[in-house]
Amino acid sequence: MKLGIVGLPNVGKSTLFNAITNAGAESANYPFCTIDPNVGVVAVPDSRLDTLSEMYHPKKTTPAVIEFVDIAGLVKGASKGEGLGNKFLSNIRMTDAIVHVVRCFDDDNVIHVEGSTDPIRDIDIIDLELIMADVEMVDRRIDKATKAAKGDKKFLHEVEVFTNLRSWMNDGNSARSYQCSEEDAALIATSDLLSLKPVIYAANLDEDGFADYANVRYYQQVAQRAAAEGAQVIPVCAKLEAEIAELEDEEKAAFLTDLGIEESGLDRLIKASYTLLGLISFLTSGEDECRAWTITRGTKAPQAAGKIHSDFERGFIRAEVVAFDDLMAVGTMAAAKEKGLIRSEGKEYVVQDGDIILFRFNV
């Protein structure tokens, strides 16, 4: 899974990226300090995997991972090449979802490219640039389908769908807010539009605001906007996240407790991302390796096996499955087997979050 972190210059994108990935992207108080997209891969926290590792003491423990891409600040006119727009719009196109960082604090010492703090204005600027870039893509798709329709009438429907979508977007609406049939939505999904990507808003507050974020006017504005779009909003303090990232695990837990926070911004962001994209994890365990694997909710056993190796899917025989909670209730795999908690599942089995699976295959 790849998440693109976007926002106007100096809203805290790179500070947040540095904190959650420890990748050391340059962070400076001027626009465009991030010129090449910085990429960081972070482990997905999973206490179930930690528990399995304690049980098996494997040679290797491999968590699921998420890739974060820190994309340079966009400005008005990015879709027309202003600032460094065209290059970074193409970087967004390669991501699965967008984390839109929105500045929700006042600070005269940190320059705002628009001159003042206004979360809704900032969101609108980014949204409009993505939409305008998409309109160009839609125009090209209409032209291509129109030419193809001269030889094959089935493309006339494609012309109609994208023409209607263009009218919707010309009014400043995103592709993801366009209402249509499932068939037409699937057709639109093939166009790889920027404004079609799901969004999580990261409301970046200062330390004082973060302590009581629900009562911060700027946060409330972002939360209302997210609710209207059916999107998620996560309150973060990039400065605090940077401090948390420097701590050891035990110190980190104590620091979060002192702040009255159960989870770091990274953990909350990962959970929100999994929900947004409909993802779950299944687990494999043994003395060689304990590992978490990310799949889409609704994936059947053979396709889940294919995440490990294509031979597992091609030669799939069955999956031996035990739910993590069932294993914990009895303590060992031997006890789970004795009590009949390990099930033999076939090709139609839909893998559940937290399943511990041993795949049987033959090629």
* Low-pLDDT segments: 27-35
Give the rounded overall mean pLDDT. Answer: 87
Overall outline = flat
Radius of gyration: 23 Å
Task: Please provide the ordered H/E string of secondary-structure elements.
Answer: EHEHEEHEHHHEHHEHHHEEHHEHHEE
Textual characterization of the structure:
The chain has 363 residues and is of the alpha/beta class. Helix content is 44%, strand content 19%. The strands form three sheets. The chain has a six-stranded mixed beta sheet, sandwiched between helices. A three-stranded mixed beta sheet has the order 3-9-8, sandwiched between helices. A hairpin with a 4-residue loop joins strand 8 and strand 9. Helix 1 (13-21) packs parallel to helix 9 and helix 4 (119-149) packs antiparallel against helix 5 (155-170). The two termini are 29 Å apart. Residues 27-35 have low confidence and may be disordered.
